[in-house]
Every structure is written in structure tokens, then in C-alpha cells.
Design brief:
Length: 372
Amino acid sequence: MQTPIPTLFMRGGTSRGPFFLASDLPADVATRDQVLLAVMGSPDPRQIDGLGGAHPLTSKVGIVSPSCTPGVALDFLFVQLQPALSTVDTTPNCGNMLAAVVPFAIECGLITPQADTTTARVLTINTQMQCDITVQTPLGPHGRVISYDGETRIDGVPGTSAPITINFLDTAGSVCSGLLPTGQVRDHVTISGSAFETFDLDITCIDNGMPLVLFNARDVDCTGYESVAALNTNLVLKAKLEALRLHCGHLMGLGDVTTKNYPKMTLVAAPRDGGSICTRSFIPHVCHDAIGVLAAVTVGTACVLQGSVCDGLSHMTGSSVSVEHPTGEFSVELRIDPNDPQNVLRAALLRTARLIMRGEVMVPAALWSPSR
């Protein structure tokens, strides 16, 4: 016996995964988490018995419901799972999966399009972050519909799609106590471990949507231009990054982050393809093929902060920050308070999304059977 659960399988930005109405999942959190593990096929490196794609970027779930918050249309709960682990993490944000929330809501009838474009305010309940998301809703034969067709291209996704604009309203201190959780724009730390020699480096601990630890790639014996494959097979580097991550977790007021998906570790270097800064981002133990949406926002913010580790490496032109990553670039529009350089007034970016499949995902009835 198996339990069918309605789902839409969607790509959001450079991530993908099943989306659910909150009302279609167990109300009990422990039961819900067991159901989601079964849905994705975790823990198993290949996730062979579920919908997961054997990678953190394809081990994500979105849960959507109408919001009770005044002025907000939708609540979005992002869930990060790992292929080989039984962890179900609802503490971080995901700006890529966020891009699919309004399309999902329109597909499910939670929102009715009213014009050629539809804007809805979304609350990411993981971190209480709000944003306005605008999607294309042209008139079809039977009324207005969500459009996935368009000429917008984002690096890391083949082809083109309709544009989705995300305007973040309040991202500073999404998980940490503030934009600069250590109180400093730059910190100097000494890291030791059994797999490498003790090393010193300057870091910037910052959270403008995603907790990150930024540092110059050369301080961990890299160039910052290595391929993803080369970085993922560099075991000494990985040992250094994990030791640094655990140390910075305490510095940032996050406590023991051993089992957490943050802070993300991000190597920075001078741009070499016409952008503002070059990055290699770990999420947190695997090098990202691109860079996460909110990680890009946070890196961009560091680029405009005087004294950060990006200062002297980044090349800035106007209010747009082009963050280079292994498969292209990610542009972020920032507006900074002229009276307070640490106050980000606006962070906006462009994403795309697509509905891949609609149907039911099956889980063992022994885990959950609403009829029982």
C-alpha cells in the first residue's frame, strides 16, 4: 500500500524539486519530514528510490500555502535535503526555488492573474523574509495563464524562458543577527586541523539573504578559477573549508553548524570575464556549479562594503554587480543607503522557472496514510 500526494515538479532558477500545497502534507512536522525523505529517496547517494537528483541542488522541496500575514499573498517553506543524509533542513533560504513559487501558486489556483504581468508578495517562512515576485501572465484561450516561454537566459540553465523578477524587501540578517554578524566587515582567523598545516586568513562574515564566509581564494592555495570537478576532488581544500566553516559558525552566532547547510563557503578572486567579482561557492561541502540566488546577493553586497575581502578585487560599475561563477555570471541590482553604507535598500534580480511535471508522488502508507 502507498499514499499518493499531489505534486508539481518544477525548476526554479538553477535548482529543481517537487512543490506541494501545505494542506496536502502531514501537519505533524516529524511525520512530514519522514514523508519528504521518502519522496526524495534520502538517505542514499543516488536517491534511486525517490525524486532526488543525487545532488544538493536537486534535493530541494517547496511547500506553499495562502498567507495569513497582512499584505502577503503566499507563504513559502523551503526544505533542503541531502542525498546521502537523513537531514531535513528548513532554516536556510533558497532564492532559486523561490522563483517557482508564484508559477506554482497560479497553476494550483491559489492566485488569479489579473494582467499581462502578475506580482505577488511572498513570505519565506524559514527566515521571515519578504519579496515581491513578478511573472508573465498573458491572455490565453480560456483566460490568463502563467507563461514559461520567453527570451530570458540565465547561466546554468539551457535555453530561454519567461523572465521572473524577484525584488527582495528585507534580506539583511536572514539567519544571523544582522548583515555583519561578527560586527566587523573583516576578521582575521587562524585555522588548524589534522589534514593540513595551520593557516591564517582574512574573512568577511556576511548575511544579506544567505550566511556566507568570503575569503580570497589564494589564502587557501587556490586561484579561484578552478573547475568544479577540480575543487570537488581537492580533499585538503575541503578539510580546510570545513574547519573554517565550523569555526565561523561560532563567530557568526550560529553555534555548532556541523549538521547545518550554512554558512556557505565562498572563494573570491578578481573577475576575468568582464564581471565584478569571481566566485567559487561551496554548499557547504560540494562546489556549486553556479551560485545560489541569495548567495549572489550577499556576495554583491560585500563588493560594495569598504574593507571587505572583496575590496580591491571587485570591479564595480554603477549599481549592478555581476558575480562570475563556474558556468557564467549572475547580475544583482543593489541600492545602498547613502547615509548608511551597511543598509541595503533594494536587492533585485532576474530568474526563470518551468513546470516539468504534474501528478502524484507515492510514499509508503506505513509512513503516512491520511485515511487511517
